Amino acid sequence: MPELPEVETVARRIEPHLVGRTIVSADIRWARTIAMPAPKKFQEQINGRRVLGVSRRAKYVVIRLDHRCNLLVHLRMSGDLNVKKGKIIAEKHDRLLLTLRGKRGEESFLAFNDVRKFGRVWLTDQPEKILGKLGPEPLGADFTPQWLYENLQKKKRALKPLLLDQHFLAGVGNIYADEALHIAKLHPLRLSNSVTRKEAAALHRAVQTVLIGGIRNSGSSIDWMYRGGEHQKYFRVYGREGKPCPRCGDLIQKIRVAQRGAHFCPTCQPLERK
DNA sequence: CATCAACCCTGAGAGC
DNA sequence: TGCTCTCAGGGTTGAT
Q1: Quick check: helix, strand or coil at residue A58?
Q2: Is the CB of A30 under 7 A from strand B?
Q3: CA proximity to A62, closest of A51, A72, A77, A53
Q4: For chain A, is the Cβ count within 10 Å smaller at the N or the C terminus?
Q5: Catalytic residue selected from A21, A49, A59, A185
Q6: Å separating the CA of residue A162 from the C1' of nucleotide B13
Q7: What separation in angstroms does the CA of A6 have from each of A75, A214, A225, A246?
Q8: pLDDT for A195-248, tens place per residue?
């Protein structure tokens, strides 16, 4: 599921149910889910830690704990996080379960559910080692039209894979990249260093527009994994191959770019400059 | 530095 | 029904 708006939605949803709780045990049901440290150490170190806050950086959920510990969670393709009341009941595809205790002893648990097992969890006192290499937040102060223009010029790459590169810009994924390129009227294969200042400004604005829209609608729910978001109702090109472009009525095309599907309108997003 | 294929996994949907 | 094939919101690694 998880692009920036979906991860933001998850972080906001679980935060009020986690802050102030103490983690009293960890049930690791798929060992490879734990990226670091080793499973046994993970259990020892997380035991007794109290949750101080929950936030998001790129597509990571960042759960800040006491003793300078940080629990980083990357949902990858199919991960999800939920807090449930009462004693642990494991559902199918739950990969990690953390038992929580409130100030008055109330029991609850955090479930990391992940059908495809691509998701990963890190427990570390140096989160910047993992998060530090990422590009700027697209909704942060560092991401300006000027920054985007200058950095597009420095590269000579197709726009679509560049937008998906988390070291370039952090948090944009396949859906929102396609949507943003359509709004900005830029072809997914357009080379970054050919983009004009004006086009870069349009792309900057489009990226922020689609991400803010996604967050406002609590993310997108697609395929068989319903997650509560409504943003899929507003897709302009993603998953709409052969359907009319909302702007010009021409039919949306789907091509393969860097091993991912790329949806675009051949009329609104021509590869050749007009 | 950039591109590409393989890989990590499960499950849904299409076609036969 | 059941089989095979393709595809899926992400990211790493190693070869070229």
Answers
A1: coil
A2: no
A3: A72
A4: C
A5: A59
A6: 31
A7: 10, 8, 13, 24
A8: 999 999 999 999 999 999 999 999 999 877 777 899 999 999 999 999 999 999
